[in-house]
Amino acid sequence: MHLTVRTIQSSDEHLWDNYVLSSTRSELYHLSKWKNIIEKAYGHKTYYLMAVKNVKPANGQDKIAGVLPLVHLKHFLFGNRLISIPFFDMGGVLADDEKTEIALIEKAINIAEKIKAKTIELRHFRPIKWINDADKLETESLLYKNLTTNNNLNSINFATQTNKVRMLLDPLDSSDELMKSFKSKLRNHIKKPIKAGFTTKIGKKELIEPFYDVFSANMRDLGSPVHSINIIRQVLDKFKKDATIFIVYNKDKPIACSFVAGFKKTLLNPWASALREYKSKAPNMLLYWTMLEYACDNGYNVFDFGRSSPDSGTYNFKKQWGAKPFPFYWNFIYLNHNINISKISDKSKFDKIINIWQKLPVSVTKIAGPMIRKHIGL
Fold this sequence. Notes:
There is one protein chain. By secondary structure, the protein is α+β, with helices and mostly antiparallel strands. It folds into 2 domains: 3-162 and 329-344, Gcn5-related N-acetyltransferase (GNAT) (Aminopeptidase); 166-325, Aminopeptidase (3-Layer(aba) Sandwich), CATH 3.40.630.30. The protein has 13 helices and 15 strands. Strands 1, 2, 3, 4, 5, 6, 7 and 15 form an 8-stranded mixed beta sheet that branches. A 7-stranded mixed beta sheet has the order 9-10-11-12-13-8-14, sandwiched between helices. Helix 2 (33-42) runs antiparallel to helix 8, helix 3 runs parallel beside helix 4 and helix 6 packs across helix 9. The radius of gyration is 22 Å and the shape is globular.
């Protein structure tokens, strides 16, 4: 059966999302909505690739066999790359079989060559067995044979990064049972901000401003450029039912915040922040408990704490809630050169000015930060 790979059209979005939702291996970031979110928030060119079988079903629609969302990031400092997808932990290729995976990745390589991108980065939660690292791309590989036919193989290198983990709390029961499962020390930490008089709010667009105030201040303190407020607005607009903001208040002052999005039975937390001056009062404990309580009470079975480095401070913070680590498989395809994977971190390129950034007024970082952050893929 012949397979055609083409870029998505607006009329394909419903078909694309039906395929994603029907797959047992799909993730939130495979959905087509992220294409519009990233384009509108940051203006990046996107290539959402769809593998289509040449046999039409009875309803006359194309039969999708796989998808690959790609975003083009190009900057003189951070490089020329295709990423699936930037700013978040997952994406990558989603397909019915290995043949379709290879067809999608071949198309990605062709696009990368045309736009002179030097790297393709595919962020997977599950390993792609035939592309784990360069040593496993053997002569019997279909991709090897196809690329050899096109005389491209000698200039392409493969590598896989697995040093980051996804922290998942699974399965969730009722919020009462979850609280009972915690050790007394953890329960006392949750009670501490409540005793300090902190309160929480859960909402949507009406909480964007307080969310962004806390988020921006925390990113400045970390020495990291903050995302544009527009990407927050875009996510809330495109995921009206599934995206939610949480704020912890000290009286009328927002002091901690988080953003979650639901996908199937998983509630994901891509962004969370707290003001440093309130650290001793542990507002983060109340913030995370409120998210977990919300997940339990709204039918989610899994809470995704997001990406961490093993044994780091954030890793241990998430682990105390009962979250378990699962490795990410970030696959890198290098075109026309060979780069040591240890040198791929965008953050390392920003380290030299972190100290300066931390001293800037938050109002300045809100303006300058997004102009830098849009080019940082992490």
